[in-house]
Amino acid sequence: MIESAAKAGEIEIKGVGKTYRTGKSVFRALDEIDLTIGANEFVTILGPSGCGKSTLLRIVAGLEEASEGELSVDAESIVGPGADRGMVFQGYTLFPWLTVRQNIEYGPKLRGVPILDRRKISNHYLRITRLESFANHFPKQLSGGMKQRVAIARALANGPKVLLMDEPFGALDAQTKLEMQEALLEVWDKEKTTVLFITHDIDEAIFLSQRIVVMAAGPGRVLREYRVELPAERTPEVREHPDFMKLKRELASLLKHREE
Ligand SMILES: Nc1ncnc2c1ncn2[C@@H]1O[C@H](COP(=O)(O)OP(=O)(O)OP(=O)(O)O)[C@@H](O)[C@H]1O
């Protein structure tokens, strides 16, 4: 892990609401969201399309402002984007004109990190995302899964306390998605960042998380929270575990009833 000494990453969301006003129309996207995500915790927000998952994540990222409420990371108010929070989106957001290594070093370079230290950082993240042999490739030469590995490495290269992930594997085929989920848990285990992950895939939420927050729409709000009581080491067999199946049924039923 790099820059580990300063890491913690507790996110506090208190009474957060969001109202969009366009012309004469007013839309309440989020209402009274209260959530605390512990340092190094892996929390997934699960919910139907339009319940405000992305809006909430963008507010935590500092890319959008809440209409009311308070947000902080380690008791420091969120007032805009910051290096303490790294983001990974569904769409591939790599710079196509830069190599994998240059993409990873981009943030540190902007922050004025000297070349030798930048090299150390990129070597570390190339290694933990298993991309060492692709360091000099350009994004267009990579598969979708590899591009998302680079996106994760690039976000981590800034030493964030918190990783905010908005359906990062949503565009990948089923097999690659499973591989990426395992890869992400491996990285999370090594890096000890807090992860706030968005998905509408129930299996993905259970496999990855320690806690699942289910949101409902109209207006977007927290419906229920579940602690995932599965072995800490999430091998593929975990998907066959009776507790996995039980939670999957419960979540499917909750989400289905909300849609009826
Ligand atoms: N800039 C905006 N102006 C007006 N309404 C918006 C804006 N951004 C989002 N919304 C509305 O807020 C609601 C929540 O959107 P959001 O993208 O957060 O949902 P989501 O749960 O992430 O959905 P999905 O799973 O489909 O990505 C939606 O009804 C959306 O139309």
From TrEMBL:
Which PROSITE patterns does its entry note? ABC_TRANSPORTER_1, ABC_TRANSPORTER_2
Keyword vocabulary terms for this entry: ATP-binding, Nucleotide-binding, Transport
Q: Which residues cross the membrane?
A: none
SUPFAM superfamilies attached here?
Answer: P-loop containing nucleoside triphosphate hydrolases
Location of the ABC transporter domain: 11-242
Q: Which GO terms describe its molecular function?
A: ATP binding; ATP hydrolysis activity
Q: Which CDD domains match?
A: ABC_NrtD_SsuB_transporters
Question: Pfam families per the record?
Answer: ABC_tran
Q: Which PANTHER family match?
A: ALIPHATIC SULFONATES IMPORT ATP-BINDING PROTEIN SSUB (PTHR42788:SF13), TAURINE IMPORT ATP-BINDING PROTEIN-RELATED (PTHR42788)
Q: What is this protein called?
A: ABC transporter ATP-binding protein
Q: Organism source for this protein?
A: Cohnella faecalis
